[in-house]
Amino acid sequence: MLTTLAVIGLAFSLDLLVGEPPTPIHPVAWFGRLVDGLDRAWSTDDRRQRLAGLVIAALCPLVPAAVAAGAVLAAAELHPIGGGIVAAFLLFLTTSLRSLLELTEDVVAATDGSLERARKDVRGLVGRDASTLSAGELRSGAVESAAENLADGLVATLLAFAVLAPVSLPAAGAIAAWIKAVNTLDSMLGYPSKPIGTASAHLDDLVMYLPARIAAAAIAIAAGDPLALVRARQWARVPPSPNSGWPMATLACALSVRLEKPDVYVLNPGGELPTLADGQRAVTVVGRAAVVSIVLAVVLATVVSEFGRDLEAYWQVLATLNTEHATGVRPKWP
């Protein structure tokens, strides 16, 4: 258990001190290049393209997962604490908090002085055409992305890692890498216009079902408004994604603002688009929600560790009883 806490602590210390590694040396970018090479017309038939996409979705995430597990195992063989250090580095690489908050804050601040800069910077957060967006719409895009990426970029990998780490650090590193790969596949291939990305989109929807709703609950708690999660239910299913609407709608309700992607969805339509102050508060709330998520991860890791200890004690008692029965020695009960 102490190893798990140390690993999680080291991972987020790296994030706070270093932030995202440069793209050329980031393993997620390397995986992206692999996906980019597979994103092509394997057939002129949509059905066969979907079949190719199914193979890609099934096999590609296994590559970084296997590399991650192998790296932790190899490091543990070299030094007793090596496995923990590599596992922490993997968690650091598969989560993102500081960069998300900083970019969101930069876009929000730029809307107060230079819309052109805000339109340029927001491309790092959203895929929509920002050339004609107003200041409020730019802030909306940044706030939406901060909420959605809390689930994609932090909660999903962190909680899965925390559940498996007390059992097996190699498995924890593998699941973190696998989930990040699934997210990357969806972001690159999961568009309605791409039959090859259909399987990746469905897989991501399945993987993100719980993390999106946990992120929404964390946002509501961080905002000091737990009922925001309840109010958000009527808009959470408005976006095309079955998951991203939950954290976005919850943040909209918690801030009492309208979040809008032109011609696609409107969340909390009774509010106004975020002001500068609303955008700044959104960054604070998402940061606090990240802390809530980390606390939850620690609690989950503790529960798994205690359950594992109790289960081990149970099997030891059972093994002792079986041995006594086999040897004809009656157990001495107190």
From TrEMBL:
GO CC annotations on file: plasma membrane
Pfam family for this entry, one: CobD_Cbib
Topological relation to the membrane, as annotated: Multi-pass membrane protein
InterPro entries per UniProt: Cobalamin_biosynth_CobD/CbiB (IPR004485)
Keywords, sorted A to Z: Cell membrane, Cobalamin biosynthesis, Membrane, Transmembrane, Transmembrane helix
Pathway recorded for this protein: Cofactor biosynthesis; adenosylcobalamin biosynthesis
Subcellular location: Cell membrane
Biological processes, Gene Ontology terms: cobalamin biosynthetic process
Membrane spanning stretches: 51-74, 81-101, 154-179, 285-304
Taxonomic superkingdom: Archaea
Molecular-function GO term, any one: threonine-phosphate decarboxylase activity
Function: Converts cobyric acid to cobinamide by the addition of aminopropanol on the F carboxylic group.
Annotated family: Belongs to the CobD/CbiB family.
Protein name, UniProt field: Probable cobalamin biosynthesis protein CobD
Organism, scientific name: Natrinema longum
Annotated gene: cobD
